[in-house]
Here is the input.
Amino acid sequence: MKNLVIFSTFLVLWGCNQTKQSPSESAAEDTPVTEKFTVVDPFSDTNLVDNIKLYDLDNNPIDLRTFAGKKIFLNFWATWCKPCIMEMPSIERAQQLLEEEDYIFLLASDEPVGRIKRFQATRDFELKLIRVESAFPDIGILSLPTTLIIDQQGRIVMNQIGALEWDAPEVIQKLRSLSM
Here is the structure.
């Protein structure tokens, strides 16, 4: 068990130390941008949408099922994670670009509410910051940032591990095309 905790901590810290790549930088590495969107579902043995416990910063529960019929952009982040913070402005711009697309944007941290509120007070983001009850490794999040796109039927249709320029035209196009 101790080795699992050490390994999980390593993966989270390693992911947080990764630098953000724009889609054009990814393409420059001879990797087509579309490969970035390969659906990977690490939660195939669980039903994350039904089992995750989310709360707003006033400790009111958030049930993802209430968003049935909408697409959910669920980003897992931490106040200490530099790539997480660096991608937030592009998430906010993507939120604005997709406001007519039935997307709900939620950014979940497993940190205490007080820490999230202090972080929010020092930033000028119009993002819905929320809290997840379980520690990230307990729900399969082993690297930060991690973003899940959940379709209108509650299926995970995209799993992005690492930061991304969410407002890049090709990313916006991909988000618009996911499960209509």
Observations:
- Strands lie at 54-55, 61-62, 71-76, 103-109, 129-132, 146-150, 156-161.
- Residues 1-14, 17-40 have pLDDT under 50 and may be disordered.
- The first strand starts at residue 54 and ends at 55.
- Residues 82-97 form the longest helix (16 residues).
